[in-house]
Amino acid sequence: MRYHFCPCCAAALADTDLDGQTRQTCSQQCGYVNWNNPVPVVAALVLLRGEVILVRQANWPAGWFGLVTGYLEKAEEPRNGAAREVAEELGLRAVRVERIGEYPFVEQNQLILAYAIECEGDIVLSDELSEYKRVPINKLQAWPFGTGRAVADWLRQQETRTAVA
């Protein structure tokens, strides 16, 4: 994210080469550097009664569905954050949380920490969501960006578990 003014002293920010990267720094040399580090985001592949629940954010185009996502809170364990997001957005209680993986989402400058979360309860949508859909596990298909990479890895993990069993 680009800023115009230093949050420490309000001076203008300037582009500066630091360690081979262009960074925004304080033009008055107060020491501020905008490192523009990725923001940690938790994602939940929600499992409810043998199906995957996909959601559509209220601001997404019609027909677009994805995983439940949200920002990780300060000092929050990622798996707890993912379970919290499921409770906030769908009203479901997590009964089992398993790590899927970590995925850079460069387009949004985010690091996605993805979990498969088996849940119980009845779905109650938050205001952030406009709708949801239930997808049988054998019909679930990954998409090529964002949380879709976590879906692809989770599907591969399921194939491996089935082959071993």
UniProtKB/TrEMBL annotation:
The keyword Repressor does not apply. Its cofactor is Mg(2+). Keywords: Hydrolase, Magnesium, Metal-binding. Residues 37-157 form the Nudix hydrolase domain. Coiled coil: none annotated. It comes from the Bacteria. SUPFAM superfamilies: Nudix (SSF55811). The keyword Ribonucleoprotein does not apply. Its EC number is 3.6.-.-. One of its GO terms (molecular function) is hydrolase activity. PANTHER family: ADP-RIBOSE PYROPHOSPHATASE-RELATED (PTHR42904:SF12), NUDIX HYDROLASE, NUDC SUBFAMILY (PTHR42904). This is NUDIX hydrolase.
